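An instance follows:
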Amino acid sequence: MTSPAEPSGKQGPANGGIHAANNTYSTLMQAGRDINLHQQAPLSTQPVTSAEMNAVRLAWIAEDADGKEIATAPSVLAMLDRDERVIVIAGPSGTGKAAAGIRALSELRPALPGAAAGAGGQRLRLRLEHVLPDWENVEKDRFLLPADPGRGYLLDVSGESAGWEKPHITAKRFLGHADTLRAKGSYLVVIAGDYGWPENDPALGRNVVRATAAPPGDRIARRHIEILYPQLVRRGWLQRIVQEAESLHAGDGSDQEGHQAPLADLFRADLQPGDAATLAQELNRISDSGGTLNDARDLVLNWRERVSTVFRETQENADDRALLLAAVMLEGLGPAEILEGARLLLQDQQKRGIRDILTGRDLITRLHAVQAKSGGQKVTFQHLPGYPAAVLRHFWCQISDIQTDLIQWVKDVTAPKAVGAGRIREIADLLAQLAVSESDLRPLEVAHAWAATGYAGQDGASHLLARLAKDPALGRQVRTKLRLWAGNSLETATVAAVVCQGPFSQEYPRQALTCLRWVLGRTDRDSAVATAEEALRAMGSDPRLLPRVWATVNGWLIDFKQPDDRHYLAARRAVLALIQPHPTHLAATYLLANSSEHPATRMELVRGWCTALSMPVLEERSEVVLASWADAVADGTFDGDAVIEVLNHVIREHWMTGPLSTFIAGRAGTQYTSQAVVDLRERLILRWNDSQQPHTEIREERHSAPHASETLDVGPDPLSEGVDAI
């Protein structure tokens, strides 16, 4: 598909192309034709990162604490080499299952599909990708597993496999994907929990590798330091960490001077592999920031000792504790702004006397006492990575009475024109860390207020919820909460719609569409509905997502047939949102261009128009979109012939419908008086009266152009994507 950023400079065909006067859209129109709207989109994927690859390729440890080989990755690789296309790694957490899967797939070198066997044949290095579990119920939802050529996929269901109601059905679904993968030269490794996968079934258990052991955590951390961060080994105190850990491992717990090794006791063998890798990475950060040996120890202990010390020293000083919390949440601002935020927390609006001002400690001294650094009118904790999150956790857990006031203060301090209005995204990150570490969704309450404050707040709300929606532990709850919010008050529906404008819709498009459907079904076209329409257009403007979006919306038209059902209205609003021209969201441009090449798409556009025009409550919106189609033809955004083809079919069905009859006949006081509308009306009338043009009934077209679900030989019905009710 031609990239929109690479205009071809060529003029479209005289019949069915685009206007030469607006050449910008030429490649977009061609791209629209190239999109296969009638092919079901698979689950989304994300590439395995270079950091993950480096960890398993360069810093791999193959032995357990007793020096015995850990068989997980070799066993998986052996099965893959035998042309097994779907392998399951089951076992408890902390056994390095995901790393073993990546390791095996990264070492696999399969022959190219169709290549001759033998040592001389061409070998393929797989492209590794994580599959995102975009479902609410793996056994009931319809979805398609990905199968691009030359891929090694990892699907982590370890957080839910123990709760499967019908594990045999789920296992068969995953294993049944093997033939499709074989045809594409690809593989799938499923990461399951300790329970759930039916291993005792002879057919479903033969591809299972059970993970029982992982390398000691201290060895993982040391290897990562030595291999991935070699510069750290040459930096003073970090060199001592490695030496002390080796000494302790050999049975000597003291350094050469006879003192207890300050960090070696914290490099524990029982560290889980992921935690050990994170520890090495964080020690790298603190070394780069100029941290000391004590800082490193505090980091390993999650700053608990240092935070406890600060709180002990400020036990009788509410002003300094408020200053600490303000500095943590408003990091990067100046001392005076931090002080303003602290006074807002204390609700201290009284003017201090000059005597108190002159005799009190200066502000910089107070900031240093709570471990902040101040320089160049900027307060920072960059020298203590992770310290702000630890402070926030301490406030939340140890002074739990502050929780309600803390949430309200965050709303106040980030309000428009408030001191923290420009820090919303950073505060969202801190709140997300708090929610994950404490398995507590109450920090999400700030999203309501943020969503009502304009772009910055909406961006923060989207960032917060999208991040938590991906969390293995909280993600399912957050995604369920989003769908519940989408069907409730204006405030919560707006939050749900805002989230669907961000990365959540790229990673979990099915669930985003379900949220948007609930918002679009609101009785009035309020701000939440307008936001949802914008989010839907944005999703449809992504060529990768458009087939899924279009199939899902067409599925809504078919599945929801009762006018008193809110989803009936939602489906028709969704059609109008997608077909409304937009300068940057090009879903309508893609769809109309595609309709010139594919009759099925054209008749789906006709059906969408007809269903929207049949609802009196949507007459005003239909008038707006009809007028915008005329403007799009006039400025060259839309191909006029393609528009005529679609609208002529619609006219045959809805000649007497209010918006369309007004569009054709005109009426004072409507939007249908512009020159663009007059010109399009003239072309429609001329085409209508042209006796040489065949007029095929839409009902006949519906039978001759079955929907995508009727043409698929295998796989679930794409029209049901996102239709699962709450």
Notes: Confidence is low (pLDDT under 50) at residues 1-31, 253-260, 695-726. The longest strand covers residues 151-156.
